[in-house]
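Memo to structure team: turn this sequence into structure tokens by end of day. - J.P.
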Amino acid sequence: MTSTAQATADQWNTEHDNDGYTPVWYWTGAREGDGYAGNVTSRAYLLADTPVVKIEDGPTIALTHIAVVAEQDLHRHDRAMQDRQREKDIEQTRAGFTLVLAAASNAVRDATAVLGQLTGELYDVEYAEGRTGRVMHHFLDDAARALHVVEVLNKTIPA
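Reply from structure team:
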């Protein structure tokens, strides 16, 4: 089996010079439907007696689970790659947004705690008895409630 598998890998390497990339459709399971758009970025090699290639920013795939993109499908492939990149960018930005919301909530919680110290145990007269201190406390409460609502709403958006 190894000699046949090696011959398959050698044939791929002869037919597809990967000094850049080879646009392909690939399937991670059964070879049904359109598959995923990807670019092969490696020479074929054997992995457990199976000829495989590496997909750019993706998995290692058996040669039996890829199809080289035909010339007439390059535009569709490029569009699928752009869509894939956009999905990655959205996923990363959503994750960043969630982290920023958590940081904002923590900052408001910390500011409320510090204001509590100034109006409580330390009893800074300006904050404890002055109008500005009451307004700050009111705004921090409003901010905490608003951030909580935004965090809850953010969790309802499907991945």
